[in-house]
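Hi U.,

Before I forget, here's the chain from the pilot set. I'm dumping it here mostly so it's searchable later in email.
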Amino acid sequence: MRQGVEAREAASRGGHDLGMRQATDPTACTAHAMPAAILERQAAQERQMRQSNRAPYRQVARLLAAVYCVTVVAASALIGAWRRPRPNAIHRRLADLFCYVPEMAVHKAIELEAFVRQRYEGHGVDLGCGFGQVGGLLIAAAGLRDLHGVDSNGACQQSVLEAGYSGFTRCDVQALDLADAAFDYAISVCVIEHIPDLERALSEIARVLRPGGRLVFSTPAPMFRESTLGYRFFHALGLRERADAFKSSKDLSAMQFHYLSAAEWATTLSGAGFGEVVVEEIFSRRQMLIYDLLNIQVNWMRFYFADKLAVSVARHPLLRRMLVSATQTIAASSGSGEVRGAGEGTHYLITCKRTTGFVARARTTVGAEATR
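Structure:
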């Protein structure tokens, strides 16, 4: 059973930037046309993914997976001896879920620790909940009792409900099939940047929140684009044009549309009916480097191996135990709260409140399905 689940989840993230997007797919938002460049890049990635499962690419990918496993386990042993990290419950659970994609555990551990520090009361909604693994951890860690999941991928429904959500609705965040003023708070974990029409999405979120309701979300900061491994590599070699081209290519492959500054977020959210905006930097450049090194395979999709590694982990308990232990150590040693100065963080945690004077736009529903 675990083999099927892990292989399915790996395949759902395959072809995109692992860990950043969960299951939410902006190209599934049928109400709004996607830029041609995004669709072309997605098609190219899907072709490369299929190619990675054919000879000789499949054999090379499996060899790379073996080398990757040895490297991760060896690195974790050195880190464990040097830094002696102490994994907490979040690290352990994330490692169990994502041992075949350890960068996911590193990234989500940092985000979850920031989300857990917030206060949540009443009926909430998770916008872009994916399969519910991350939200399920937040439900347990923060003691949430009534969190409704929303995602454009209907295949998430069963996993979301099993993760502890009170209900699930399949719909587009840009056209929520949810009642006006239905929720006391909304959360979104690195999803907002993947939504093409940010103004419409924020307006919809404000509409479904009660006056005074809180929105808590994470999203990449402008520094993200210049903190990726590829950009830093080309920039260090003095290849400025190649570095800038890598930034643009990364935007397409990750399907990320928005990199607003803290001031720009305050203005944008104010225009959408939100006030009391607080922007916190939560991800350092060092942590971003760790993430990118663990996620190195996405730069060569013809040799993509996370899906193959997921199957191997499900079939071989010893391999699974080794990778779970290694992932716990790496996630715990990556730390949190490292950002020391304004403008140095690669990601934001943003909180705000829906203002009482907000007037919602007309509700739009597109292909929604709900389970309550």
